[in-house]
Amino acid sequence: xxxxxxxxxxxxxxxxxxxxxxxxxxxxxxxxxxxxxxxxxxxxxxxxxxxxxxxxxxxxxxxxxxxxxxxxxxxxxxxxxxxxxxxxxxxxxxxxxxxxxxxxxxxxxxxxxxxxxxxxxxxxxxxxxxxxxxxxxxxxxxxxxxxxxxxxxxxxxxxxxxxxxxxxxxxxxxxxxxxxxxxxxxxxxxxxxxxxxxxxxxxxxxxxxxxxxxxxxxxxxxxxxxxxxxxxxxxxxxxxxxxxxxxxxxxxxxxxxxxxxxxxxxxxxxxxxxxxxxxxxxxxxxxxxxxxxxxxxxxxxxxxxxxxxxxxxxxxxxxxxxxxxxxxxxxxxxxxxxxxxxxxxxxxxxxxxxxxxxxxxxxxxxxxxxxxxxxxxxxxxxxxxxxxxxxxxxxxxxxxxxxxxxxxxxxxxxxxxxxxxxxxxxxxxxxxxxxxxxxxxxxxxxxxxxxxxxxx
Length: 456
Description:
456 residues; alpha/beta; three-stranded parallel β-sheet; 12 helices
């Protein structure tokens, strides 16, 4: 009997019996065009797409990829919005490379706003003739909490209203391409309850105007700020006034200079990635930028720095680090051994350091005959009295690395663990040899040394 029942169980339509809540959740992760297609899977689902609160329209889907299918895409979006059976739209995402249909985009956004949209994600491609202007209704929307704008190029938008903008907006992500400075400044300063801001994109100087961009971010409730601007050939200064800022993530710094205005007492995490060494106009003096930034973030608890080499920081000849009184964790990622000069100085400047992470991102094994570990003249207090864990990722087994590890093990009196992660270039036999050698190094009785063979 049991064997006879199993085929019947397999023939049951289990998909159709899924609860509506589960089906809606599944559909919310699908592009809307795929959600509509699911009508063929179950009769009960035939109209379920019309009740979705998450709408994702991507004209790059194969059904609409050809230029001739642009009108079909416009018709599809319009019909989905027209035949909806629920009033609210939680998330509306649109990716649209057809600037001639920009008026339709404005209508769709208006529809989303009056349906109490919570998250709005727009990818719009403009031309010199057809320019996308943010509909004014976006600024007044009381339900909007997340706004993502990817406008390529962002040549012009109407300026935001003088007051009353974005009353509920918590997160803003702006991808720019040679944007208009005034519009950006107004946009970044009209979000009274904004807590997260991401600015990325490209400023390549192809406008011919040779503009020195000055962006101003003024957000009284901002807690997290991420900035990553690529292919910069013109200076970009970002002035940040955010007294409640807790997390700062800056990538590709170089010609992008960030100035923290006012109090930085709330800052807890800072991640700074410097741009790979590049030639700059001799008239530009970048020698004070890195030190000034480090001085403003010197009260953080968690600090991450990455650079290809020490020269990427454009340090002055008499450079020195501020004292990092609160740093518990320090992460240094590098492509050139000379950045380890920072480590020796940091050990003297971080008296409360407990967790140290080093990451060598160079590829392969190259023995650098002139490379030596230059330790501090005196054993730093942070190393001898506080440091508890050390992680070394990308270990190559080079001489200066061995010297540095030997010094850290010898002087880290409270060390509990050192983890060394290697790449495939080190064979297991060689790792065993190194491990045996490390076991001969003087270290704290409580310190455990572990090798991890990384799969790359």
